[in-house]
Predict the 3D structure of the following.
Amino acid sequence: MTISVWRYSHLILAVSSFILLTLASITGIILAFQPVSERLHSYRADQFDSITLAQSLPQLRDKYPGISELSVDSHQSVLIKGTDADGEKLLSYVDPGTGKLLGVPEPKSEFFEWVTALHRSLFLKETGRFFIGLTSFLLLLITISGTMLVIQRQQGLKRFFTSIVRENFAQYYHVVLGRLSLIPIFVIALSGTYLSLVRFELIKSPIISSDVDFDAIKTEPEKKATDFEIFKTVYLSDVKSVEFPFSEDPEDYFTLKLTDKEVTVNQITGDILTEVKYPTTAMFTELSLDLHTGRTNIVWAIVLAVASGNILFFIYSGFAITLKRRKNRVRNNFTADESEFVILVGSENGSTFGFANAIGKQLMAAGKSAYVTELNNYKVFPKAEHIIVMTATYGLGNPPTNGTSFEKLLEKHPQNRNVRYSVLGFGSHAYPDFCKFAFEADNLLAKQKWAVPLLEIHTINDKSPEEFGQWASTWSQHADIPLEVSAELITRQEPMQSFSVVEKTMVAGPGESFLMKLRINGDSNFTSGDLLAIYPANDHRERLYSIGKIGNDIQLGVKLHEHGIGSEFLYKLDSNTVFDARIVENGHFHFPSGVPSVMMISNGTGIAPFLGMIDHDCPETKRFLYCGFRDKASFALYEKAIKQSEVDGKLASLQVAYSREGEKQYVKDLLIKDQELVAGVLAGNGVIMLCGSLSMQKNVIELIDHICETRLGKDVSYYQSHGQILMDCY
């Protein structure tokens, strides 16, 4: 059964029963304290569990000849009925060991009686009992559907009690308290349902009667009651009641109502006259009463009170979650057919729509037509120029409910023009398959002929406003559309720092690459793979460059573009020039520690961060470098440093592809020859890192996906979501 069925069932059941469920929970909390109150006034004797009928009954009968009945209540207090020596009515609690009178029963609390009537029947007699029974049944279904939701959320039964990522108060405690209260609430619901079925005779509970053969009753050998075998083997703790013979006539007998059967005993010989086992339905009825009321155990009664209180919280938090989801509903000003920008959202709880709507509003504020919808509403968008996919992942790397049909729809409805796409994944590192479905969506789009990547896939951990702001800024630069993301979703940028140019290589003209070494004026922590953000026009336009850390300096590899505001700005900086920029932490692309091997794949200036990573002192990690350049002259800029790394033993192997001379290869061609090594790195818990152009990323990921499926039996998104394939492409 799909998650959507469980979720909608859970919601419908809660909505349809919340009024009666609220009333039943409030009265249930009150009634849970009735056993506690009664226990405080109980007369349970010491060593009650060790007293037999042989030790108690004869003594009580000698002391109170008019005794007619002995009963044991749920608190194991012994109550006797009959007449005393003066012929007066006797009703008192006694010590079963000594026969001492302990006290008389107190009148039942009118308040608890009133609450009980409200809890059982709403003062509507049988009609009310029917509605309360129906409420118990609905609570049972709510418990089952809620359990299934938690199992799917936690990625299986084995992870049922693993930690929960805290997204918001209502949702977090709805799950946490739901898991802790699951068993008592299930017991409340099941026992209440069973008792209602018995009440309306949908479950038959036969009446027990002992059919004594009076002609077979013996009058000898006569025995004392203390010598009756059954009296010596039955303890008071097993007794519900004992009816004494009315006279000394042999046809009058003892009737023992025990916890599991009814026995009649000859009062003269001690012979068992009849023995009738209680039917299973009767046993279940008693058990259901004990479990539903907590009448036999104070601790369980308190557990029931807490569970009933939690039901009230679940009603509140459940509606709070639902209202929040509805609050995030899409409000579009443009239709799908007339929009230039289409934002497709995959979200299980609706929170991702908040981010999508924020971007949609900004696009419309910039004069663009934007349309936000669910992934399952994907179709041909005739005027679309950009498609943005914002999606969470559910369960074991599965798509959220509103994204389950995306793959089929993507194949069924190819766009009729080239469309640029971007994928943004939302998830939490607390789960093993971090953003797995987002990686799958990105890989699916990469295989479409009409799809042109605008930038590489980005991921957001725990709805981080900083990471979302970084993506929004990057997307804004590539799309050339200024965005001012809502302050509710993003915090302010870090302050700028001062940088000095240490050295820079020269180029003959646009199209060639240059190396640049920078030094931070002041303290700053950074590492290879982080980003340098510059603002060449002193406005909102930001340009990001991947950093290689050499010693304590920053090394950049930059391709000079004609009219490129970022590359031209940097190239015009002379040695010792000081300018302002900032470091952007790019944690998802840091050199992994503690792994046996790392395969670094780049083309063009994407090699810059790898130069710093190769320079890292990590002798335990085997490093392989695959890089692509136009020609040997392009590679010459980096060749000396890389060759020295080979000599120093920091680089296990180097493979270079030239696209415009010699064999005219690309990086993908090098990897095709070394498919066994690629598979070995992933199978051995190693890491593959990609940095360079998006077209290179697309081709390489397609190849790695093929290698994963044919050699490892898993798709590439599995390794992406588990941090074994890291990408920083542009």
About this structure: Residues 162 and 252 are 63 Å apart (CA to CA). Residues 3-40 form the longest helix (38 residues). The chain is about 40% helix and 20% strand. The chain has a mean pLDDT of 88.
